[in-house]
Amino acid sequence: MKSLIDLVNQIRRNRFVWKLCISLVVLLPLATLMVIAEKLGMGVWVYRSTSAIFALVSIYILFSFYRVLYDLTSVNQYKTDISLFSFIWLTLKYQIIFGLIIVLLFLPILYLFNYSGFGVAESAEKIGGISSVYDSPIFIIFRQIAEFFFLMGFVIVVGSRALDSISAKLKILFFNKSTIIIMSIVVALNILIELGKPLISPKPSGPPSLVYNLILMTVYVGYILSILALIREWQKLYFQSISN
To answer: From what superkingdom does this record's organism come (predicted)?
Structure first.
């Protein structure tokens, strides 16, 4: 509990967190203005100007996200930290490598199921191509497993600031009570998010969709906090094991 309170206090004091929130708020009306400008034919210069501002704000949001992640998972208390741009490049390299591995695994499985007797190809043809295959129950399970392993690797890469010996570092993640508890919370919240996605759209006879959106947003915030808490807890255990 103390570590979670420390994390929340650090988030509250981080100026890039507030800049990130403000940028996200600014982005929403810009997106709306782009749609209005395109539909109403307000002029090419209006649409292009809005699009340029939207792109700049999006880039700043991405930079702020990495800066917040860098600050909240700093390893300065354990060793000298790498630079921010080295950190960004490190996480991008991990995403590229993991993405290539998943694609190489995903494409053969997609091919097999698409031409098997599971009815995936038929549903894809009727509903909307590859997106329906991606959202089919079989691939939701595959996607969740892939996302879980991606997240665990991401925790290790961000936490240790290194891409080497990931498999060896997994032992600390999976064989400590504190990290197992936080991982269980992360998985539970992820399941809630997956179950809550169909409820975002308005229901004619149900409660307002705003209620569902607020609940889902709360779950998302808890999910992000749990991931940050997992990274920080793993960092503590990992660097303690190195010093010993």
So the answer is: Bacteria
- Return the structure tokens found at 70: 């860098």
Question: 236: number of CA atoms within 13 Å, CB side?
Answer: 9
- pLDDT given for residue 44 in this prediction: 72
Q: What is the pLDDT of residues 59-87, one digit of tens each?
A: 999 999 999 999 999 988 888 889 999 99
Q: Which of 26, 56, 54, 25 is nearest to 38 (CA)?
A: 54
Tell me the residue range of the domain where 149 lies. Answer: 73-243
Residue listed under structure tokens 């509990």: 1
Are 58 and 160 in a shared domain? no
Closest to 30 measured CA to CA, from 46, 60, 53, 63 = 53
In sequence order, which ranges of 115-244 are alpha helices (DSSP H)? Answer: 120-127, 130-134, 137-160, 166-174, 177-196, 209-243
State how many domains the chain has: 2
- Please, are residues 143 and 191 in contact by the beta-carbon 8 Å criterion? no
CA distances to 52, 125, 183 from 65, rounded to whole Å, are 20, 38, 22
148-195: pLDDT as tens digits: 989 999 999 999 999 988 888 888 899 899 999 999 999 999 888 887
- Res 43 pLDDT > 60: yes
Q: In Å, how far from its chain's centre is CA 35?
A: 26
